[in-house]
Amino acid sequence: MIVEIGHFALVLALATAIIVSVLPLIGVHRRDASMMAVATTGSLVMFGLVALSFAALTWAYVVSDFSVKNVWENSHSLMPLIYKYSGVWGNHEGSMMLWLLILVFFSMLVAVFGRNIPETLKANVLAVQAWISLAFLLFILLTSNPFLRLDPAPAEGQDLNPILQDFGLAIHPPLLYLGYVGFSVCFSFAVAALMEGRIDAAWARWVRPWTLAAWTFLTAGIAMGSYWAYYELGWGGWWFWDPVENASFMPWLAGTALLHSALVMEKREALKIWTVLLAIMTFSLSLLGTFLVRSGVLTSVHAFATDPSRGIFILCILAIFIGGAFMLFAWRAPTLKAGGLFAPISREGSLVLNNLILTVSTATVLTGTLYPLVLETLTGEKISVGAPFFNMTFGLLMLPLLIAVPLGPMLAWKRADLYGALQRLWVFAGLALLLGLLLWYMQNGGPVLAIFGLAIGCWGMLGAIADLWYRGNFGKLPVMTSLRRLKGLPRSAWGTAFAHFGLGVTVVGIVAASAFSTEHVVEMKQGQTADAGGYSLTFDGFREAVGPNYTEERGHFTVRSGGAVVSDVWSSKRLYTARRMPTTEAGILTFGLSQLYVSLGDPMDGGGIVVRIWWKPMILCIWGGCLIMMVGGFVSLSDRRLRVGAPSRKAKPVKTVMEPAE
Amino acid sequence: MTRKQKRLAVIAGGMSFIIIAVFLVMFAFSQSVAYFFMPGDLATANLQPGTRIRLGGLVEDGSVKRGQGSTVSFTVTDGKATVPVSYTGILPDLFREGQGVVTEGSFDAATHAFVADSVLAKHDENYMPKEVADRLKKDGVWEDGTGKGMAPAKDGEGDKAGAKSGQVVGSTTP
Questions:
Q1: DSSP per position, A95-146
Q2: Distance (Å, rounded) from C-alpha A304 to C-alpha A473?
Q3: φ and ψ at residue A155, rounded to 5 degrees
Q4: What percent of chain A is modeled with pLDDT above 90?
Q5: What is the interface pTM, i.e. ipTM, of the complex?
Q6: For residue A643, what pLDDT band results from cuts at 50, 70 and 90?
Q7: Nearest in space to B84 (alpha carbons), one of B144, B120, B39
Q8: Is the pLDDT score of B28 beyond 90?
Q9: B14: helix, coil or strand?
Q10: Average pLDDT of A272-300?
């Protein structure tokens, strides 16, 4: 019964979506306030209905109602409760439900918090959001309905894919979708602005918090996914340039560019057309990612379904939204006049450089991701584009950006003095080089390039500190005065500093973990010892253990440093009973920022076992840096300037369709 | 510089960055793209030793042999030809005899054996990499009958791989 209510609520949500897609637009056309108000109420209703539907599905999972096909396929009565909750989105249908829930959640947020947005713009934005909701509601109801029943009901479920039975599943998809789908708001704002044919600094001010929020969640989601893959898959890698990873990384890159170009638009009214285009591109990349992941064209842990009709459906959604938005852009963009002149060397100039590098890098990643698919469709030839391609292209292209990051915030708007900025930064550049050398020396050896990489990472970190240093005017004013000045800095300045610092930390982590990590694959018998990263590991033998829905063999290792016992670590092989599927559970020991990673291989004839031991120096910096970036995002989001004091546009006559040329 | 010259300089800078990127992408493609082959294709492929390729097929039954330390050798077959492969490292959890596999590596110039540096697994118990499944289906060697959610029987419908699954499960089972 509850399941049917959920199904019915979803159908009602579809009906509401149709109303919200049409009525507000007519309202805008006729200047009818009550019809425009339908957008706000309708969005709230839609959120309520989808939430109800999602709750019904969750209920079916929690009580293990195996008469629901989706639950039977992806759950098991013995599964721990948390995985029953997170298992809701651990499959194709459920993850699309989560996608939809977050989409209508964002519409609801716009409806509730968008009080200071002009009525017409708000009605248009919510209508565009409703179009997207409509498309995905249709997709779910027609091709991926999670509420289908089985008769007779099976007694036991088929269990969730063991790789997904992890706490990571509880947080990675919601965070990632909050980011992915959050960009839909930017897209809707861009399309609405194009429909109205006018756009100004106030628009950028309304869009920026949504971009910032989506970007922050996406950063967290990607970092979380990377850490999850690192500890769960047992391969010791944290990024594989897998098409699915790229699918989430491209919107992040484009979103980062959008974040910076919206800044220029808000402050200087320049780069208008570009910002609108970027907002469309970012969400298009999110949709493309959804297509790549959900259509089954790729093989990956994320590709649950391989039903071709789904792929074609998403491809149609993709074509309609991306194609429609770009056509609207091509038609309307010439009417948007650019303003705000600036010299090449200026804050604007540095942000343009940021955008150039980020978009070109995004294009490179896109090429590498899609080329195999396109080639296979056209010629039938199968190729693989792997990490070497991306490291060579993306890595090299990002280098100038990493060098330029500390300089950007130092430059003045409109016209700046690069030499002056360099003069203020040379001390920090020297320090960065010294720190890079020091880190290199501490890790003993490694390629010379690593020094350079570490120095660039430190340069990013110190550059962020230098920015704050000069803003506080330390060294010239008494320390207390400087500290007070720092306290008085706008939150967004702190956010910038945090995010740039975090980027530096991540770069240091990436360089150190790639250049200095050591790997040993050894055959070990009970009592034997192996060395890694200055520690010695002794294999003490196996112990059998039984989990709720798996059996496992746990290997125990004692870790010693210089003869003294430091710690111990368990690493195991599990066999999930329902699916007869083995998994490797790596043992991970953390020493400061570095980690020792122990993964078990195959048992040998003589009672030994193959053990793979990695020493991963400073690897935690990779995700730690992302966390700092995320903190930067939230700090910046809390800036009151984003909420109050947005230049009012209502004063201007609403009837002007185009802005006067500047 | 006049405004026009400045703008030209900026545009030229941007364009040159894009051109560099395009060349870099083309260069990287020529260096690092690995083509996919099945054992039967190799006779006509005319490969230089050392060229990185992906080799896919089924792991031949009874061919998995463990050598010194963590070196493993096995044979990949597609029903037309077989290729011996050696690999040093830990095999993925779902590596099984009689099941599909994709290995990446190159032919050794001296020994003419295929040396793999990675062996790929799908993270699912219906273990059949997409490339391999597509080709085997086309050649009629294997049939996809085990799509998720089709029927309670998770394996056992394919005519070749299916008949063997559950019977030969490599060394990964405790």
A1: HHHHHHHHHHHHHHHHHHHGGGS-HHHHHHHHHHHHHHHHHHHHHHHHH--T
A2: 55
A3: -80, -30
A4: 40
A5: 0.75
A6: low
A7: B39
A8: no
A9: helix
A10: 85
Predicted pLDDT of residue A39: 94
First to last CA, chain A: 62
Tokens encoding B137: 């289906």
- Residues in a beta bridge with A614: A519, A597
The pTM assigned to this predicted structure is 0.86
CB contact, 8 Å: B32 with chain A? yes
Instruction: Read off the amino acid at residue A590.
Output: T
Report the run of H or E that residue A528 belongs to, with start and end: none
Smallest Cβ–Cβ distance between A521 and the set B14, B17, B70 belongs to B70
Residue A304, min C-alpha distance to chain B (Å):
8
CA-based nearest residue to A40, from A121, A141, A104, A111:
A111
The neighbouring-strand residues paired with B116 are: B87, B105
- Best CA proximity match to A559, nearest among A587, A584, A580, A581: A587
Position B147 confidence tier, pLDDT thresholds 50, 70, 90: very low
Question: What's the pLDDT band for A599 if we cut at 50, 70, 90?
Answer: confident
Identify the pLDDT of residue A192: 93
Cα–Cα distance measured from residue A265 to residue A259, given in angstroms and rounded to the nearest whole number: 10
User: Which strand (E) or helix (H) includes residue B153?
Assistant: none
- Count of CA atoms in the C-beta half-sphere (13 A) of B128: 23
Quick check: A161 pLDDT over 90? no
Residues 6+ apart with CB under 8 A from A132: A103, A184, A187, A188, A321
Question: What phi, psi does A337 have (nearest 5°)?
Answer: -95, 135
Tell me, yes or no, if B29 comes closer than 8 A to chain A by beta carbon.
Answer: yes
How far is the C-alpha of A431 from the C-alpha of A436, rounded, in Å?
8
Give me the residue label for tokens 């062996």.
B119
B contact test, residue of A382, A520, A551, A552 with most B CBs within 10 A: A382
Q: How confident is the model at residue A504 (pLDDT cuts 50, 70, 90)?
A: very high
**Contact predicate A511/A436, CB 8 Å:** no
DSSP A661: P
Query: Out of A349, A352, A612, whose CB is closest to B90?
Result: A612
* Helix spans in A380-447 (H): 387-404, 418-443
Contact B147 A306 (CB under 8 A): yes
CA-CA distance, A458 to A454, in Å (whole number)? 6
Residue A374, pLDDT above cutoff 60: yes
How far apart, in whole angstroms, are the C-alpha atoms of residue A111 and residue A125?
A: 9
Band of residue B95 on the pLDDT scale cut at 50, 70, 90: confident
Count the neighbouring beta carbons within 10 Å of the beta carbon of residue B3.
Answer: 9
The neighbouring-strand residues paired with A518 are: A615
A216 sits in the region (left: phi over 0; alpha: psi -120 to 50; else beta) called alpha
Q: Determine which helix (DSSP H) or strand (DSSP E) holds B145, and give its type and residue range.
A: none
> With an 8 Å Cβ cutoff, are A393 and B25 in contact?
yes
CB contact under 8 A, B123 and A381: no
B123 close to A (CB below 8 A): yes
Q: How far is CA A276 from CA A124, A196, B47, in A?
A: 15, 13, 48
% of chain B at pLDDT higher than 90 = 2
Three-class SS state of A13: helix
Q: Are B63 and B75 in contact (CB under 8 A)?
A: yes
Q: How far is B80 from chain A (nearest CA, A)?
A: 19
Kind plus residue range of the DSSP H or E element containing B148: none
Contact between A382 and B54 using a beta-carbon 8 Å cutoff? yes
Q: What are phi and psi of A580, to 5 degrees?
A: 50, 40
Q: Is B122's CB within 8 Å of A299's CB?
A: yes
